[in-house]
Amino acid sequence: MKAAVLTGLRELEVRETPDPVLARADDVLLDVKVVGVCGSDVHYYLTGRIGSQVVEYPYRVGHEFAATVRDVGPAVTRVKPDDRVTVDPAMSCGTCDQCRSGRPHTCRHLRFLGCPGQAEGCLSERIVMPEACCYPVGPMVSLEQAALIEPLSIGLYAVDFWLASRRPAGTEPARIGILGVGPIGVSVLLSAVARGMERIYVTDKLDPRLAVAREHGAAWAGNPEREDVVAGVQEREPLLLDAVFECCGEQEALDQGAAMLRPGGTLMLIGIPTVDRVSFEIDTLRRRELCIQNVRRQTECVQPVIDLIRAGRMDPSFMITHRFPFERTQDALELVADYRDGVVKAVIEMG
């Protein structure tokens, strides 16, 4: 089969590789159909690492995808050949203390697609995944929508996580900010709208992304390169925001997020910084008693996202602004890496 592999910094080749085979009773052999380009894929493409996770070449990235089932192991009951599925790229052990306590996303032995030292990614014609990671989507969800469910599940997890821990709970409508409305930021936006939120304030340095956010639920959108976004939010929300979801991993956005929060507010960290350390102005955090909450992917949100799409309460199709054939995988990575042409989400169609 063909696979797209990284061979160096900003270097990629489409190669012939061995076909995967069913090795365990709960294995599912999948024909990959649509792959979404994620920011983490771009990190590996540009720098060869994210924190302590360093690529050893050649290496295959990719973890957001939709597929059809080609074959299944003898113990598989959840899916059958020809089923259309979305895939949770996280493979947890199910037995460690984290898994037993309901935190499989922080499993001690987690294997994640396209993560160095864990598992090769999905940028290939076929791949084998455990049955537990395969979710049938049925005829109401398109393959393109199915490829977006992984980032959408992160957005829903972040929103629901904050809602469950909101202090004070109160009856006031939630006031939130989203800093960076790329695919993850838009996923947070759609999830917030699905949960009934209306006072949503977003920022981004790309005007096309701001326009998309306005069209799909943002009450206000500002570009930090042209205006004081903290003042823009405070003008509309004098008491400031209950929560800010930082989705771009930039120091500037972290500072803006903290400044936008009311006393007792929460800064939700979702974006992946390209640097090893970030900092905060401790006076602001201490005097306002702000909470900083990291978001590590998601857990138990894949099926809820499928259900929201089926019910017509969430339609992420507009997120896909660019489509590439498999042979042009590198062009897709370059486009996203350089934020060209108003890209929100690029996908690779496997044919």
Summarize the structure.
This protein is α/β, with parallel strands linked by helices and 351 residues long. Helix content is 28%, strand content 27%. It contains eleven helices and 19 strands.
Write down the CATH topology of the largest domain. Answer: Quinone Oxidoreductase, Chain A, domain 1
Helix content range of the residues, please?
25-40%
Strand content: 25-35%
The CATH architecture category of the largest domain equals: Alpha-Beta Complex
Integer average pLDDT: 96
Can you count the helices? 11
The secondary-structure class comes to: alpha/beta
| Biggest sheet statistics | 7 strands, mixed
What is the global morphology? globular
Kindly provide the name of the CATH class of the largest domain.
Alpha Beta
Any idea how many domains? Answer: 2
Backbone CA Rg: 20 Å
Question: Can you tell me the residue ranges where pLDDT is under 50 for at least 5 consecutive residues?
Answer: none
Number of strands: 19
Q: Helix and strand succession?
A: EEEHEEEEEHEEEHHEHEHEHEHEHEHEHE
| Terminus-to-terminus distance | 13 Å
